[in-house]
């Protein structure tokens, strides 16, 4: 078996590479209390545009990689022009060609892709104009277009999403990625390079299944990371060391983003399973059933984490209310303790002259009048403290609070 592959430094790593804009957005949000701007639909055509209108503002050409393989031979190459993939599509060898386009830029490149692969204008529009809802459409019985969303989370728990378009033909798979710097499909590439499993012995529909399965399975490490983040937030909320409203709000927003991504993808996989699709073989649908099970499991995890995050907010608000009640309790106790002291000091601070009447503060002439007043004040304080302690208002709770 012969193989020609890319140099190691040109291969893409599956490790998350955070975009500066995402990190800067989260940092700006940390420094201020202002809500961040919502992402605009920059790739959506103007209203009433003709069907198939492509909205591409960037002029930088996307990166294009071709993997052509069969049971014996695999060839992997980065091409500079779209036309360089034509020999792989028209040769006599019964191989499967995977053309991976990374990035959305240079309108002419995608128009030429549409001509080479005979992509329907509506399908090409969905592939380029992001974001689209995950779905699966059949065009003329020759192509199946699958729109999915990939997710990743970095070390700072910053969630990233990206659209992936998979066009499946008889002997080829064309993928278009929204971003050029990351994806979750490196494991599929490695399976093709090493020949692990049966992927090189099957058709293009099995390759499309492998890519879709990698996208769905890519949600598991993200949810695992968010689950650890929820556990950390639970500890911080219970300890109440800082204000937790913003981190909990960010978590709930990320979980909503995941829900909006995985929910339609579950319906997408179910449609590929149930509908009569000429491009999906019957044995491939058996594998799609496993992908559907994973999507259902992901939905259950997302819903569970959303309930936990809502519980975190309730716990945080309850803790804040309890702490406020404790503060008010302490202030009330202090006020009531010093209330008799203040009353005694106020009484003996009145300006009544003893010479005018024998009933005007006769204690002023007592030899021990001043020490007796102090003893009366201290006795009132000690008496109130003893009373509050017997009532259980100032003793420690079982948790040490």
TrEMBL record:
This is Magnesium transport protein CorA. Belongs to the CorA metal ion transporter (MIT) (TC 1.A.35) family. InterPro entries: CorA_cytoplasmic_dom, CorA_TM1_TM2, Mg/Co-transport_prot_CorA, MgTranspt_CorA/ZnTranspt_ZntB. SUPFAM superfamilies: CorA soluble domain-like, Magnesium transport protein CorA, transmembrane region. It is found in: Cell membrane; Membrane. The keyword RNA-binding does not apply. It is a multi-pass membrane protein. Residues 1-54 are annotated as: Disordered. Mediates influx of magnesium ions. It comes from the Bacteria. The gene is corA. Keywords: Cell membrane, Ion transport, Magnesium, Membrane, Transmembrane, Transmembrane helix, Transport. CDD domains: TmCorA-like_1. Gene3D superfamilies: CorA soluble domain-like (3.30.460.20), Magnesium transport protein CorA, transmembrane region (1.20.58.340). Its main location: membrane. The chain crosses the membrane at residues 330-348, 368-388. It comes from Sorangium atrum. The keyword Phosphoprotein does not apply. PANTHER family: CORA FAMILY METAL ION TRANSPORTER (EUROFUNG) (PTHR46494:SF1).
């Amino acid at each position: 078996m012969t193989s020609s592959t890319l140099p190691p430094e040109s291969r893409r790593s599956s490790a998350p590479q955070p975009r500066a804009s995402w990190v800067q957005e989260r940092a700006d949000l940390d420094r201020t209390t202002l809500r961040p701007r919502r992402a605009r639909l920059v790739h959506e055509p103007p209203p009433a545009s003709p069907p198939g209108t492509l909205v591409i503002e960037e002029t930088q050409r996307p990166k294009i990689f071709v993997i052509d393989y069969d049971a014996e031979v695999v060839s992997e190459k980065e091409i500079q022009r779209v036309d360089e993939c034509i020999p792989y599509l028209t040769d006599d060898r019964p191989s499967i060609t995977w053309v991976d386009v990374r990035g959305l830029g240079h309108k002419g490149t995608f128009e030429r892709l549409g001509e080479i692969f005979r992509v329907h204008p509506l399908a090409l529009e969905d592939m380029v104009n992001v974001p689209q809802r995950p779905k699966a459409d059949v065009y003329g019985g020759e192509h199946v277009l699958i729109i999915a969303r990939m997710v990743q989370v970095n070390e700072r728990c910053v969630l990233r999403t990206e659209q992936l378009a998979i066009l499946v033909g008889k002997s080829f798979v064309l993928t278009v990625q929204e971003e050029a710097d990351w994806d979750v499909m490196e494991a599929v590439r490695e399976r093709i390079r090493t020949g692990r499993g049966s992927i090189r012995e099957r058709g293009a529909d099995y390759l499309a299944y492998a890519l879709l399965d990698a996208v769905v399975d890519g949600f598991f490490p993200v949810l695992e990371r968010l689950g650890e983040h929820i556990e950390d937030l639970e500890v911080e909320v219970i300890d109440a060391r800082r204000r937790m409203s913003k981190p909990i709000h960010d978590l709930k927003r990320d979980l909503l983003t995941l829900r909006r991504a995985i929910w339609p993808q579950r319906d997408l996989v179910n449609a590929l399973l149930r509908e009569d699709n000429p491009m999906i073989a019957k044995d491939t649908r058996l594998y799609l059933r496993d992908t559907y099970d994973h999507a259902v499991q992901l939905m259950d995890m997302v819903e569970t984490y959303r309930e936990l995050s809502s519980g975190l907010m309730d716990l945080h608000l309850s803790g804040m209310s309890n702490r406020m009640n404790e503060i008010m309790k302490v202030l009330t106790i202090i006020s009531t303790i010093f209330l008799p002291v203040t009353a005694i000091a106020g009484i003996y601070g009145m300006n009544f002259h003893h010479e005018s009447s024998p009933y005007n503060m006769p204690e002023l002439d007592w030899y021990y009048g001043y020490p007796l007043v102090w003893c009366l004040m201290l006795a009132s304080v000690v008496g109130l403290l003893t009373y509050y302690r017997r009532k259980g208002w100032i003793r420690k709770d079982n948790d040490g609070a």
